[in-house]
Write a structure and sequence with these properties.
A hairpin with a 5-residue loop joins strand 4 and strand 5. The longest helix has 10 residues. The protein is an alpha/beta fold and about 150 residues long. The protein contains five helices and nine strands; from the N terminus they run E-E-H-E-H-H-E-E-H-E-H-E-E-E. A nine-stranded mixed β-sheet has the order 7-1-2-6-3-5-4-8-9. Helix content is about 25%, strand content about 25%. It has one domain: DHBP synthase (Alpha-Beta Complex), CATH 3.90.870.
């Protein structure tokens, strides 16, 4: 992002979220323990391939998955979002760390989220909470469902 430390409030493909290149800034907003990793949302399979190896047997599944997060062999969770308004947001940045826009363990609160971020990306449909993505952990040729 032009200002790498900015935290954006944005409607993701799954729910209202914070997005940033700066995981530490996200962690301080969410009051998360240091070292607890964030999900990365990425704009293309090419972005994922730059960061880690996708097992050949699973490439098609990753490419075709919708609202699905995979924990890759390198231990990081990534979700490919190449369509929709959030996909267009990601096209501009390649990949960002992402998390739900709520205080840890609490429900979404618009006022708290808006005062906690640096910039708000409004969409015509507004913000809405939606179900979280499915999460799968990758093996060499298969996946195990975590959520």
């Amino acid at each position: 992002m032009e200002n790498g430390g900015l935290v954006y409030l944005v409607q993701t493909d799954t729910t209202v979220g914070f997005a940033s290149k700066d995981a530490e800034h996200l962690g301080s907003i969410k009051e998360r323990p240091r070292g607890k990793q964030f999900l990365q949302t990425v704009a293309s399979l090419k972005e994922i391939k730059r960061a880690c190896r996708v097992p050949k047997a699973l490439r098609k599944r990753v490419r075709q998955a919708k609202k699905t997060t995979f924990v890759y062999p390198d231990g990081l969770a990534r979700r490919l979002v190449d369509k929709g308004e959030y996909g267009r947001f990601l096209q501009r940045y390649g990949s960002v760390f992402s998390t739900s826009a709520n205080q840890s363990g609490r429900a979404f609160d618009t006022a708290w989220a808006e005062k906690s971020c640096d910039a708000i990306i409004y969409t015509p449909a507004g913000f809405s909470e939606q179900p979280a993505s499915a999460i799968y952990k990758m093996g060499k040729a298969k996946v195990i469902q975590l959520r």
